[in-house]
Amino acid sequence: MEYPFDKIEKKWQQKWNDEGIFRASNKTDQKKYYILSMFPYPSGKLHMGHVSNYSIADAITRYKLTQGFNVMQPMGYDSFGMPAENYAIEHNSHPRITTEENIEHMRKQFDAMGFGLDWDREVSTCRPDYYKWGQWLFKRMYEKGLAYKKSSFVNWCDECQTVLANEQVEDGKCWRCNSPVRQKELEQWFFKITDYAEELLDFSKVIDWPEKVITMQKNWIGRSEGTNIFFKLENSDEIIEVFTTRPDTIFGCTFMALPPEHPLVGKWLKSEAADSKMRQFCDKVMNEDKLLRTADDTTKEGIFSGRFAINPVNGEKVQIWITNYVLMDYGTGAVMAVPAHDQRDFDFAKKYDIPFKLVIQNPEQNLVLEEMTAAYVESGVLVNSGKFDGMGSVKSQKAISQWMEAEGIATQTVTYRLRDWGVSRQRYWGNPIPVIYCEKCGTVLVPDADLPVELPDNVEVGKTRQNPLLSVKEWVNTTCPKCGRPARRETDTMDTFVDSSWYFARYTDAHNAALPFSKENADYWLPVDQYIGGIEHACMHLLYARFFHKFMRDIGMVNSDEPFARLLTQGMVTKDGAKMSKSKGNVVDPQYIIDRYGADTVRVFMLFASPPEKDVEWSDEGVKGSFRFLNRVWRIFQENIDVIKEFAGKPVDGNVSSQLKKLRYSSHFTIKKVIEDIENRMQFNTAIAAIMEHLNNVYAVKNVAKLSNADKAVFAEACLIMPRLLHFFAPHIAEELWQMSGQDGMLHTAGLPTYTKEFLKKDEITYVVQIMGKIRGSFEISAEADQEAIKKEALAQENVQKHLEGKDIKKIIVVPQKLVSIVAK
């Protein structure tokens, strides 16, 4: 009889919902466990990546629930943003309508999978009861000096008509639409994440994060210790600040490199003709990909600005060049160039005939400047460096920095690659920034009592290439909350990463109308015990969420230092060796698989196919194999249900046969293996493999009805082990088998099964026999047998004797409980 998954899955989904077993309590003495997967964008359909992610989380949820924890696994929707706006435009609708329709459809798919979610805590970032508190947090940032507005060059996507953060530009293209990104100067709102740079480098408060993610964040933050040196612009009081990690080469600086985005360059361009070479060069470079500009294999180009700076240590004139290889995103945005001691500067100076100056001499082979064919970048002895001549270059770095600092021409400092987070977006479907501009009062925050600033519905979405909010004059034009005079609203909306930077905390108190969440609830639930999501979020969402959490701690909203104690970055789901995508035509619809094989089959395949951190290669045969496995489990119960029901839980009365002793060993070994694989390694694939092997051992027992009562009790135990362990991976069939067997309550109330150490001792051990590294046989022998008996039995095997004919045995090695290795010639 085939497992009737369609009826059984609906039955148990309804029962779980009716009894509310996944509703977490905020008021309890139970130990908590907060499991969270990154919430989805409501595209309207779950994809296999979602299924993989949430199957992992649900296995942990059910495991922890069975352990007796107060488990919270909430769900919500990251529902603001360009994709939702574009989807509505494509369907000639409104994003509020299409987003809610998509959410409703996805909710049904979640239910069809039977995931144990606490729907009482559902949030959606596009609903006013959520984004009100995003505005509230923006105001707190502003009050603490962490939110500010400034004019700057930004990454601009013409297709999306909006700004992108550096993290959202991939290979010079928009991460959403894959269109080229260019530089554009705009006034933007920023969050001062750089104030937290040093603390964001500290991962001592997380319990278990992948080392790769930690390394990626540290590299993105990019801490450098060095010196800021102050160069004067010739014939001006203007100062150009340069950051360097090599103050020992300052006397050899012969030119300075600025990016086209540097504020000074912007000033100079105002006096340049529209067709001047300088303007043309700057326009060209600013529309190039920033990462490609700094790549080693990119041709280094520049144009002389016609201006000079004064080297503060020797008064010499230094040429100022505008180049394509310097970025505003590092240091001060200005680089001092020392051609004799930096290969990039060497090549550039050779190309443009810029002077060289030797200031570090090779102590082993005297360098002659005119004969140098490459920069000398090793340590050495200072020359042409004033009073520091003769000093070792490494030792001189601190000495020169201290001297320049004492002279008032430099400061020792720490700089970061990380830049403040630009949060302004020029689109409609996002959280409005709660700011009003008044001619009399200036920048005014919307009072808390007037939050949320709600998005208007009557917007010309898709009918304008500018910010759609500008089309709603009655929304833009308002009154100043301070003086009551006419004023206008900020029309930028916030980056959607702002919405996802604190949602994990809102889940702790999702319906609080007075605050984002209560501190009492937050302190009980946070940090998240296990967070699950893709590694692609390492330098965006995960970094921003850590920043937000530390800010919320600093204003007294939470006690913990980190939002996520443990992080699992699950692999992708691939098909035919590539990530599933519509463009590749390799997408598999989860609903089709659910309808054909059931949700438990999909779950088991996803968890069995690969360790959670590795990619899952989709296989139709693998899915069928998982379905066959569940049907085999179903049949063993159907065929033996009377024995299972009668002897379940009964003590073993009498002697157990040799065959059933092996089965009892299999039961207790499987319990131990599955629990350790989940608890210690989170390796669901090997846990399921152990259950499959145990099922084979159960099927090896024949004529169950004729077994002794003692053997039947062992057999019933072996069968009932399976639903108790399968419960984490295939909960519907497990609950049905448990109930079918006459057991009381649902599986999570039964607690974790326990193993008995005594039953993990084998009466007999299987040994494999190798001759010169090749397997030639196997045998079973008493676990009490000594080495001589084991060797004797190995040599007695017929196939072993055959392969030893005419050979001289040199050595026999016994590996206890595993192997006999024979060396023969």
Report a brief summary of the structure.
The chain has 26 helices and 34 strands.
Report what the structure shows.
The protein has 825 residues and is an alpha+beta fold. It is 37% helix and 20% strand. It contains 26 helices and 34 strands. Strands 10, 11, 12, 13, 14, 15 and 18 form a 7-stranded mixed β-sheet that branches. Helix 17 (541-554) links the parallel strand 26 and strand 27 (567-569). Helix 18 crosses helix 19 and helix 19 crosses helix 20.
List the helices and strands and how they pair.
Elements: H1 5-19, E1 32-37, H2 48-66, E2 70-72, E3 74-77, H3 82-90, H4 95-113, E4 118-124, H5 128-143, E5 147-157, E6 162-164, E7 169-170, E8 173-174, E9 181-191, H6 197-200, H7 211-221, E10 223-233, E11 239-244, E12 255-258, H8 263-269, H9 277-286, H10 290-294, E13 302-310, E14 317-323, E15 335-337, H11 343-352, E16 360-361, E17 381-382, H12 393-407, E18 410-416, E19 421-422, E20 424-425, E21 435-438, E22 442-445, H13 473-476, E23 477-479, E24 486-489, E25 493-494, H14 496-499, H15 503-506, H16 519-525, E26 530-533, H17 541-554, E27 567-569, E28 573-575, E29 578-579, H18 590-597, H19 599-608, E30 616-617, H20 620-647, H21 658-681, H22 684-699, H23 709-726, H24 731-740, E31 764-771, E32 774-782, H25 787-795, H26 798-804, E33 809-815, E34 819-824
Q: Helix content range of the residues, please?
A: 25-40%
Distance between the termini: 56 Å
The geometry reads as: globular
Q: From the helix content, strand content and strand pairing, which structural class follows?
A: alpha+beta
Strand content bin? 15-25%
How many strands in all? Answer: 34
Largest sheet: 7 strands, mixed
Rounded mean pLDDT is 94
Number of helices: 26
The Rg value, from CA coordinates, equals 34 Å
Contiguous runs where pLDDT drops below 50 for at least 5 residues? none
